[in-house]
């Protein structure tokens, strides 16, 4: 059986499914108000099963990213606690001093997640 790859532009349209139908003009518009081209409208209204599944995967990955971003402050606290408990003077520098390379990499990832603003959804980014 021939496996047809999802068309990336269709998946992107499905992922940004904020399009709205305007009955008066019989056209679809993006959330920003710009009208769909006829090609965009045709593609968005006739996706393949694989394109719908791929769009769901993309949205699910973004939701997973958001969940990780939301939980990052608490995860950072839980991660640092055992290192800080090993010192009388509880400082970030003391905690880093006793971490191995993998632990420092995890710390960096958590600090980045806490300090960076949340990224907007873009298909094929997450």
Radius of gyration of CA atoms, rounded to a whole number: 22 Å
Q: Please provide the ordered H/E string of secondary-structure elements.
A: HEEHHHH
Strand content: under 5%
Shape: elongated
- First CA to last CA: what distance? 29 Å
| Number of separate domains | 2
Explain what the structure shows.
With 126 residues, the protein is mainly α. The chain has 5 helices and 2 strands, in the order αββαααα. It has 2 domains: 41 residues, no CATH class; 75 residues, no CATH class. Strands 1-2 form a two-stranded antiparallel sheet. The two termini are 29 Å apart.
State the gist of this model.
With 126 residues, the chain is mainly α.
Features:
2 strands; 5 helices; elongated; two-stranded antiparallel sheet; 2 domains; mainly alpha; 126 residues
Layout of secondary structure:
Elements: H1 8-15, E1 20-22, E2 27-29, H2 38-45, H3 49-84, H4 92-97, H5 101-115
Antiparallel strand pairs: 1-2
């Amino acid at each position: 059986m021939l496996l047809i790859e999802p068309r990336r532009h269709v998946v992107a349209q499905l992922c940004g499914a904020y399009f709205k139908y305007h009955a008066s003009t019989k056209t679809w518009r993006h959330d920003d108000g710009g009208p769909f081209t006829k090609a965009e409208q045709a593609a968005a209204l006739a996706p393949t099963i694989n394109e719908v599944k791929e769009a769901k995967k993309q949205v699910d990955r973004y939701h997973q990213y958001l969940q990780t971003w939301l939980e990052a402050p608490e995860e950072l606290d839980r991660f640092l606690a055992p290192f800080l408990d090993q010192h009388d003077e509880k400082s970030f520098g003391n905690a880093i001093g006793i971490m191995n390379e993998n632990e420092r990499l995890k710390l960096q990832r958590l600090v980045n997640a806490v300090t960076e603003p949340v990224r907007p959804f873009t298909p094929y980014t997450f």
